Amino acid sequence: MKTTTLGVSGIACESVGLGTWAMGGWMWGGGDDAAAIAAIQASLDAGVRLIDTAPAYGLGHAESLVGQALKGRRQQAVIATKCGLVWHTRQGEHFFDEEGQAVHRHLGRASIFHEVEQSLARLQTDYIDLYITHWQDAGTPVAETMDALLDLKRQGKIRAIGVSNADPGTLAEYLRHGPVDAIQERYSLIDREIEATLMPLCRRHNVGILGYSSLALGLLAGPIDPARRFTGDDQRAGNPRFSVANRSRLQGFFAELESLCQRLDCSASQLMIAWTTRPGGVTVALCGARTPQQAMQNAGAAALELSPEDIAAIDQAAERHLQTLD
Questions:
Q1: Which pTM value belongs to this model?
Q2: Cα separation, 231 vs 235, whole angstroms
Q3: Model confidence over 49-83: pLDDT tens digits?
């Protein structure tokens, strides 16, 4: 499997990590806790170390599942979790409501210190490998946020600092106050905006890049039956990207790449994940999974090597079929 390090932290992990947003249940039509725990353990068994989670994923539920799954195996994992989406206080800007709780964006010092203790308890650990500001808080100076994170690092409660959902100016402000080991931003074959914005800044400052939604919420995981219905609070139900017309276009895209998948002996989803970690792509592709089978398939992408010709074939197929996605 391809291995890498997170910025200047020296923390090693594979080029594929496990994302646990869907395990929290919220916005994904509920979940199966036993299957989620098995998926986390299957990821470790397959050689994937980085497990990405957050308090907002089910109001602490996903973190608790990670803690349960890692009992007796903590040293095998690199845990990334987050701060800044809070429901213990009404400070900051109201962002959304989750399960009857008002969630605010807030990255004040006292709040971060409260959050880290809650996460450590749910994760059943005494340190977090990578601690990420989940969404940015315009009402708190970055200097205050970074000062709190650096203090937690000195205390040994976190090993590395990350920033998510930030623009280049905000990232540059973080870097003025201390080292940032990684950013976490949306990145996939159909979400490439950071190539022109954040990636150049990260390259200059040796900041690792964690790409979330590597499969675009599952849209790039392989052909989806146009007749499939998404129900309950599953966010894909109202997402125009998952329209019947788009799913039909994607069937043509994947059909064109079928021979490439056969030659490389990989699935369509593995091909899409490997594309995101190609040279010039992200450091780690974060991939969601809710079953052991999904986790093991995602992990297989870390062993997949794409040639320049393979990458060109994928890009050309995307130009032909995906430019017209609604």
A1: 0.95
A2: 9
A3: 999 999 999 999 999 999 999 999 999 999 999 99
